[in-house]
Amino acid sequence: MRKNVAQALARMGKKNVTMDEITVIDVLSIIESLKGKVKRTDKDFVKVSDKLIPALVEFANASNWYWQSQTNKILERLTNRILWDAYENNDVKKISQKYLKILEKSNDKSYLDTVAAIYAWQKNEEKAYHYSSIALDETPKRIRLLLRGKTPQQVEKEIKNENK
């Protein structure tokens, strides 16, 4: 892996960087950022999500248990950020079934909250209620409001005001 990183970094001066080079560099930089060694924001990751998510899935599948675990955590965090950003900004185009499938497997209740909210926003009552039952305490309320036709912005404003 270090050899790949070294080769990728050596070639970064070229205009045409291969997907393999982007994959290795992005995966390692995300891992380092989560450890607090490199400062990058979730917004940075959202910008490269179309390349990064498939790369992370491939990286996780080809890695040993430790790297699979670490990569899956990163993948879930990034995917959640992308979906929540789309939800908050009412951007239906960014919602992808492949992203939802990634989060559906998570054990993190906040990620399952995102899944439930998106399904409710899409008016998929069965899946919305299923995921709300295993998510955060506030999720059922979020789901009810979305299924009644409120926009994500209205729902989040109402929940925020109640939590004050």
Automatic annotation (TrEMBL):
<protein>
    <submittedName>
        <fullName>Uncharacterized protein</fullName>
    </submittedName>
</protein>
